[in-house]
Amino acid sequence: MVIKRLLAFGIDLMIIIVIENVLFLTTYIIKSQFTMQFFSALMITLLLCKDCINGQSFGKRVMKLQVVDSNTEENISAVRHIVRNLFLPLWCIEILILMISKKKRIGDYIAKTKVISNHASVGKIQLDKNTLFVILLCFIVIFLLMFILFNLIDSPILQLLF
Questions:
Q1: What count of other Cβ atoms lies within 10 Å of the Cβ of residue 93?
Q2: pTM of the predicted model, to two decimals?
Q3: Among residues 20, 12, 22, which one has the least CA distance to residue 81?
Q4: Is 156 helix (H, G, I), strand (E, B) or coil?
Q5: What beta strand segments (E) does the chain contain?
Q6: Between 20 and 30 A from 122 (CA), which of 7, 63, 84, 154?
Q7: What is the pLDDT of residues 60-112, one digit of tens each?
Q8: What's the rounded Cα separation, in Å, for the pair 79 and 135?
C-alpha cells in the first residue's frame, strides 16, 4: 500500500509539474511578475486541493486508492482534504512518517483520514451541487490567499523592511 501511495503521489506531482512548467514557460516569454505570482498560487492551490473530488487525485484514481474518514471509511469534506494536504510541503518528513507507520502520514493523523484500496471507485465521478460548490469555494479562497501572499512577499514596502 505504501508503494501505491508513493506512486500515486508521484503521478500527481508529475502532472502538476508539467502543467506548471508549461505555464512558467509562458511567464518567462511574457516576463510578467503578475503571471508568475498567479501561476505560483495556482500550483500550490492544485497541490492542496488535489484529493477533493471523491477523495481521489488523478494518481490515486489510477492506483485505485481513496482518502476516507479513518473511523467510518466514508468520504470526507473538501476542507478536511485541504487540511490533510497542508503538510505536503514537509514531504520528506511525510514520506518518512509513512514509511515508519506503514499506514498514515502526518496529514492523515491531523485530519483523521486514511487511504484505502477502492476498486469500485474507478467508475464515474459523482458530485452533487453542494459538494461541487464547496470544492470550488475552497479552491478560490486558497488561490486568492496564495496570490495575495505572493504579492505581499514581492511588495516594495516589505522589501524595504528586510
A1: 12
A2: 0.77
A3: 12
A4: helix
A5: 65-69, 113-117
A6: 84
A7: 888 999 999 999 988 888 889 899 988 888 878 888 888 888 888 898 999 99
A8: 8
